[in-house]
Amino acid sequence: MENSGAQLAQEIQWIKRAQQGEPEAFGPLVQKYQQRVFSLVYHLVRRRDEVEDLAQEIFIKAFRAIRSYNFQSSFVTWLSRIATNHCYDYLRHERASRVSFYWQMGEESQQELEANAQSQPEDALDHEEQLALKDLVEKLLERAPENDRKILLLKELQDYSVEEIAEILNLKPTTVKVRLHRARKRMLEDLRQWREENKRS
Amino acid sequence: MNCDYLRERLDNLWEGAESAEVTRHLAECPSCAREYRDLRVVGAGFRLMKREAEPEPSIGFAERLVRQLGELSKAPSVAEFFERAGRRFVYATVVLTFLALLAIVLPATGPVRGLSIADIQLSGPEAQMANADPFGESSLQDAPDLAPEEVPAPAATHEVK
Predict the structure, then answer these.
(1) Of A16, A126, B90, B101, whose CA is between 20 and 30 Å from A156?
(2) How much is the pLDDT for A118?
(3) Which of residues 57-116 of A touch B (CB under 8 A)?
(4) What is residue B158's DSSP assignment?
């Protein structure tokens, strides 16, 4: 979401007025970034019915904390940081396991699905196969350590650059690169381990 | 399972960079081929998740939020009032408790002092007087009420002529 010079100046005005405690000036900022926040919340929490409530809480939190925004990073990065932390606070309390489509498939179907995923674009897979693949990745994300999950979601689902992730998570870009590599590696290792566990059971 | 070829190129392959060299290696190395298959599966899962239609804010989300913020920004002033009033109440209680304790601890007659040299040196009629009527109250009680005109004027020593 690129800002032109005039848009940026306008946004700065809104932020400064919101910092003076004007909720009306916060309205255009909500309008501008609501879809971004909804998208981030949805990918982090994966529950459609919770997204609007969480987004509302995030914007209220942001308005209350807006005096601490010092224009060092972009407003959307600052907002994303609040959203990410809020979602993780929520997930810590609300984590619940859901039915796993992937693990309900027989071993043969799993292998067929994996072969199909390798040989053809995911759009060409049938609906059940698509559901199973999404479910598999969701489950792997749930099993992943929190730091891995955050970084993978921001990179793979939100398309943030390494530099933006560094700002959101308050890390150096080089640290983000190292953690991203480790998170990907761990996720593949976990898939192998999980498959073994399922075979044994 | 000990081949590091794929792991060393993990980030590039994850982001879709393939080459003829990689394809050749995968054809020869079952462990990397297995790992690559997992990588493709996970990558496909992520891409499908990303493509899912994201929930959208309901109509009037921003307006409702601004209204709510307006109500919330009024609420803290009430809370602040109670907080400030509460703080004052605590300070007042502390001061009053301190004063009450002070009143209990200190004797009603005022500060107590030890015997001074003057007390020790009192003797004879002065001492008797002091013992019998330390505050001279009896002399006041016994004294006849004197009307102002009856107060004897001090004797004039010099007559003004």
Answers:
(1) A126
(2) 80
(3) 59-60, 63, 113-115
(4) S
